[in-house]
Amino acid sequence: MTTNEQPRTQWRGRWGFLLAATGSAVGLGNIWKFPYITGEYGGGAFVLVYLACILAVGVPVMMTEIALGRRGRGSPIDAIRRLVSESGKGSAWSLLGWMAMLCGFLILSFYVVVAGWSFSYLWKMLSGGLAGSSVDDMAAIFVANNENPLNLGFWSTLVTVATMVIVGKGVQAGIEKSVDWMMPGLVIMLLALIGFGIFSGGFGDAVRFLFSFDAGSLSSEGMLTALGHAFFTLSLASGAILTYGSYLPAKASIARTTLSVAVADTVVALMAGLAIFPVIFANGMSPASGPGLIFMSLPLAFQAMPLGTLFGVLFFVMLSMAALTSSISMVEATISWLSDNKGISRRTASWSTGIVLWLVSTLAMLSFNLGADWTLAGKTFFDWLDYLTSRWMMPLGGLGMVLLAGFVLKHETFREELGLSPAWHALWLFMVRYVSPLGILVIFVDALGITRVQFGLHWPWLLAILVVMTLVGELASPRLRRTLSS
């Protein structure tokens, strides 16, 4: 087994990794986006397609990243470098590790600004700063919150400092200890909010919105949305899961752990829908409001309901915790690499990274106020960070990871790490070699705004055709299989 020169810190058990990885996956997008797109694209029909996409793309890629991390016992850069060296391949593949680490850092650079909204609104809910009589009033509060650089800068700085304090304490004392109470706390508050929603008068409408099986609403666009969300929701290709996997004990089952994270992520997202939409429907509001649902419609709805302030506070505490569990995962790859390679303590690595993160995130924060006119090709600095990471770095990084695992590294590496039966291992290998790459390729092309190919074929149908053709070729050409695996 490939290891560091010194023993690497590990999670105290599988439960610690499960909570940390689920915390990484459950972020702000899960709280509002997944419930909304579920209702928009067919309810239960969309959930079934989404779960199929999770199994076809999300789970195989996540298993691959965890196996790479545990085998390499290091940051994405170190783990991939060690494994390609072990397989006798070129060191250029370690560029995937660099891209993953940079991707996570850049995502966090604008994510702390968005996370700052959650903390800011928690304070506003506590202090009575969300008083308004209409959605327009709430929109004005939201705009004013962003147009004040001192206010927005304070809250994004608070998220940065809180993140660095947690990761600076280490894997067990910092990350694991924090998620041990934050994730259960998040679920408890979701349950409390669901209980509140049951008596709000809109619970039946929320259940129908989320779970009615309307296959007619599931268009090709909905299938693409399910595929894209299945990939992005699990924090793949950003260095987080690979680095967390490097702390996973050798005896823990990667397959069972990955499935548990995928199920937990989906369940929490659906619970969020059952917590949010009853309040929205009870007040006659539209669920199709995007971020405005959280920061405009929902605060207004809480004001109109008994005990609304109490449950509004609970909601924004939950939202803040979801943001924080995601932020600590995004920076861990950078901290791990610095502390392993630069001879500095973890605390020093954390605060050094925090200073750079604060500088970059400040530029992102200024995109909403003083720097709103600082644009390049019509995009602000914030927009460019989002565009480069979500449209390019994550899809290309994920594609590189599965191609590395499927065609480059020694198969013994994954047989030992995954510990699957021959039949299940063959299925994983087929998914990683063909189905997952094709799915990620579709995500990449769609993210660039190309949703159709010549003759009007939708990408999901093209994907199905390519999978069938690949399966036929795989079964019909043993010589090709031996060549690719050599």
UniProtKB/TrEMBL annotation:
Membrane topology (UniProt): Multi-pass membrane protein
CDD domains to which the protein is assigned, alphabetical: SLC6sbd_Tyt1-Like
One Pfam family hit: SNF
Record's protein name: Transporter
TM region positions: 15-32, 44-63, 95-119, 152-171, 183-203, 223-247, 259-281, 301-328, 349-372, 392-409, 430-451, 457-476
GO terms for cellular component: membrane
Magnesium among keywords: no
The organism's place on the tree of life at top rank: Bacteria
Location in or out of the cell: Membrane
Principal location listed in the UniProt entry: membrane
Gene Ontology terms for molecular function: symporter activity
Similarity comment text for this entry: Belongs to the sodium:neurotransmitter symporter (SNF) (TC 2.A.22) family.
Keywords, in A-Z order: Membrane, Symport, Transmembrane, Transmembrane helix, Transport
Native source species: Halomonas cerina
